[in-house]
Specification:
Bound molecules: zinc ion
Strand order of the largest sheet: 6-7-8-9-4-3-11
Strand content: 35-45%
Shape: globular
Order of helices and strands: EEEHEEEEEEEE
Number of helices: 1
């Protein structure tokens, strides 16, 4: 029997609940200025998922969204202001921050946008200057 893994996510107050199933297309760290500004932290630990694997199970009417750019629809809870996830329609993927997932086995494989880093991380993982080529970046690597 095949059991599809399901992980539970929520906003800060818990009024919005969602699930992600299967495995993420990518698990990594982003150092870009947008991620830092939106998250309030020096680095974003994120996962990317196919849109049909992300399902809101409670509190849909509490979800608000904000688009600074057309490429990122940032969703958050109107009750607590807590972040939920960010839709990237150009990429066809949804970015779920690891911090909103419960018991998710985060296994990052690389760092992206390291040229914008304000906090160096010496963990032996590849450090991409911007993004991988398949995501429209240069694919160039930087030293840690
Ligand atoms: Zn909330
Ligand atoms: Zn970023």
């Amino acid at each position: 029997m095949n059991i599809t893994p399901t992980y539970h996510g929520s906003c800060f107050c818990g009024s919005v609940l969602f699930t992600v199933t299967q495995e993420p297309a990518l698990a990594a760290y982003c150092h870009c200025q947008s991620c830092r500004h939106w998250s309030g932290g020096p680095i974003s630990a994120f996962t990317l998922w196919q849109p049909d694997t992300v399902l809101v199970t409670q509190g849909q009417s509490n979800i608000r969204h904000y688009n600074k750019t057309p490429g990122s629809t940032r969703k958050w809870c109107k009750c607590c202001g807590g972040h939920l996830f960010t839709e990237h329609p150009d990429m066809g993927l949804i970015d779920v921050p690891v911090a909103v997932l419960k018991d998710f086995p985060f296994e990052p494989v690389l760092h992206v946008n390291y040229q914008e880093s304000v906090l160096r991380v010496i963990d032996g993982l590849p450090k991409m200057k911007d993004l991988p080529q398949e995501a429209g970046g240069s694919g160039a690597l930087l030293a840690e």
